[in-house]
């Protein structure tokens, strides 16, 4: 006969697995059919991404902010010496992007992430008891209190390539190293140009 703890554990695992399958189905529906698009007038679009090395429990983050003309006005990347899991790396990326945009006086933003679970964690409180719970609560509070407009949406990887490249780039940096600049690093310029070209053709 199963103990109460075993029944609870199996129930939680079943719910988590079912929820993850639903997320994967939504991601497959979006996969490769979209490209980055310009934000509406008066808004800045913030794409961010996290990277994670499971064996070493370390990661990195990257973000890029673009205006209604598709021009990069701010970008950042950083190395995370220690991080719990991939979702926490995504949350750290969001936090870094929020802090940087706030520090540069940007008050009307729309955030985009290719992590459907993170977007759900920032729109609801369903994931508050997970390892990233404190990060999710902090990000939600910052979005609510520090910005006039702050929305977050899920977009597939094809819409998030510049942030993805920045996160991958900083994965090889020294522990704790980071940068925030008014433009994207030269290694990402081709991806920025590609996004803009596709956005113009839409």
TL;DR of this structure?
The chain has helices at 4-30, 86-103, 116-123, 133-146, 161-170, 189-201; strands at residues 44-53, 58-66, 72-80, 108-113, 149-154, 178-181.
The computed structural class is alpha/beta
Distance between the termini: 60 Å
CATH superfamily: Ribonuclease H-like superfamily/Ribonuclease H
* Alpha plus pi helix count: 6
Mean pLDDT: 88
Q: How does the major sheet shape up?
A: 6 strands, mixed
Low-confidence runs: none
What fold name goes in the CATH topology slot? Nucleotidyltransferase, domain 5
In the CATH classification, which architecture applies?
Answer: 2-Layer Sandwich
Hey, roughly how much beta strand do the residues contain? 15-25%
Number of domains: 1
> Which value, in Å, is the CA radius of gyration?
17 Å
* Adjacency order of strands in the biggest sheet: 5-4-1-2-3-6
Helical amount = 40-55%
Oligomer: single chain
Shape by Cα distribution: globular
